[in-house]
Structure formats: C-alpha cells, structure tokens
Automatic annotation (TrEMBL):
This is Uncharacterized protein. It comes from Prochlorococcus marinus subsp. pastoris (strain CCMP1986 / NIES-2087 / MED4).
Amino acid sequence: MYPINDRQYIAICSEIAKLLSVSLSSAKKKVEIQIAKKGSKTIEEKRQVAQDLLKTCENDNRKKLSSSKILDKLMSTLENEDNFITED
C-alpha cells in the first residue's frame, strides 16, 4: 500500500497515536490494516476509516481501556508480592 500524504488523514492518525501512546507510523499502520480489511479506495473512504478508528480509541480512552493504562495495571504489584519473581 502506498503511503497516504493527506494532511487531514495524517492529523487523524496523529490523534490516534496520541491516544494509544504509540508512534505515528504505528498508528498509520493500524489504520492501513483497517483500510485493507474494508477495501477502501478513495481518500475520503480512508479518512472515514481513520475517523472511525479515532472514535473507537476515544471511547476506549473514556472507558479507561487504553493500551498504556492496561499495561500500567498489569505491571503493578500487590503489596505482599513486591519481591516475588517467577523463574522460567
């Protein structure tokens, strides 16, 4: 897939990157995967896919389901298990 250099599209992708705490290229890749799944051809369709993904990310962020918050929760320890390490 050729890179999309539309300013509005890139602005939407940058908002997605900010909400997901990932790089712009990662956010664009995530959108491009959705574009490929839906078979979008025109730039307007591609912008709409990006906008839909942005709305999903905003809803997840409001519900405290962002990837960075989930990772923070997973990385926290219980008080009595601070020094516990499981060996493989």
